[in-house]
């Protein structure tokens, strides 16, 4: 199982709305994530907008490709893009760059 961690930055003026959106993620989006291999997926948000994402998957590239093939992901990413800083024209899911794991206590 591959553990993946990534960072993004949520705009300070959109933090409350970002939290609200994630308190009510569309059931169709949740089903798509599970079906495409996203397991133990968590998002952690700091008050300054730093977002830490963590998930476990058999194959991160395949999990991303699986979501890319779904209509619900395209709709979700379009709605979520305005919440983020520094995407440089990318969608949030395209801007996720996994961090290098340097330690894991099994």
Automatic annotation (TrEMBL):
Domain of life: Bacteria
Protein name, per record: L-rhamnose mutarotase
One MF term in the entry's GO annotations: racemase and epimerase activity, acting on carbohydrates and derivatives
InterPro entries: Dimeric_a/b-barrel (IPR011008), Rham/fucose_mutarotase (IPR008000)
PANTHER family: L-RHAMNOSE MUTAROTASE (PTHR34389:SF2)
Organism for this UniProt entry: Streptomyces phaeofaciens
GO biological processes: rhamnose catabolic process
Pfam families: rhaM
